[in-house]
């Protein structure tokens, strides 16, 4: 009888289900607006775009902030959180560049005997994370955190992405002031960073030692999408003790060739003026 009573209760109140569906639909619209929009949005922006009352938006946004999917930013604005970006990238693993990249990452790891990874740009937050990894026969004596948001200011994988994002993105990332994950150093100045990124673009890859992990060398080459925008990078990491100057051209050359091939599979058409690099 209890079970029947519960069923009757739900049947007698169809408006409860309708209200629940309405809330879910509104939340989906809000998340979609953030995913498709700019860096941040105000209550006024969202109210005009979604035709929702400001009071309703306040209530739903407060719940999304509590859930960790949206965060407050300066000037009474809101933006998507790192967690929202992380979830989106995890979902994207099942399709697109990530599916195409898996065999490439595995081939590079076999050919070099070093650990190869795919880094993915999170454009809304201007951060990155590793979404695919192929450990090789030569292990690394340090942990590599997967699906964890990382700054673009430190390490080869982040700098490689930042090098092809443009001046405005570089300034935005610098304004955040992400400190060194190793020793808390402050970021370089705008001019110094711009010169470093220009060098990365000129040579076609980034190389760093001990910026994200002590005594670890990172080498990364850019991966582009169909719109000629950078979407990620192909990278190798190995201990400094296993790396020599002679390895740089060999490993960087291999990464650039494989990253360029992966970009073509992803629909990228390189500009002839840049010799195949954007």
UniProtKB/TrEMBL annotation:
Which residues belong to any copy of the HTH iclR-type domain?
A: 21-82
Report whether DNA-binding shows up as a keyword of the record: yes
Keyword field: DNA-binding, Transcription, Transcription regulation
Tell me the domain of life.
Answer: Bacteria
Q: Where is this region: Disordered?
A: 1-20
Task: List, for all copies, the residue spans of the domain called IclR-ED.
Answer: 83-268
Q: Which InterPro entries match?
A: ArsR-like_HTH, GAF-like_dom_sf, HTH_MetabolicPath_Reg, Tscrpt_reg_IclR_C, Tscrpt_reg_IclR_N, WH-like_DNA-bd_sf, WH_DNA-bd_sf
Compositional bias annotation for Basic and acidic residues: 1-15
PANTHER family linked to this entry:
HELIX-TURN-HELIX TRANSCRIPTIONAL REGULATOR, ICLR FAMILY, HTH-TYPE TRANSCRIPTIONAL REPRESSOR ALLR
Q: What is this protein called?
A: IclR family transcriptional regulator
Q: What is the lineage of its organism?
A: Bacteria, Pseudomonadati, Pseudomonadota, Alphaproteobacteria, Acetobacterales
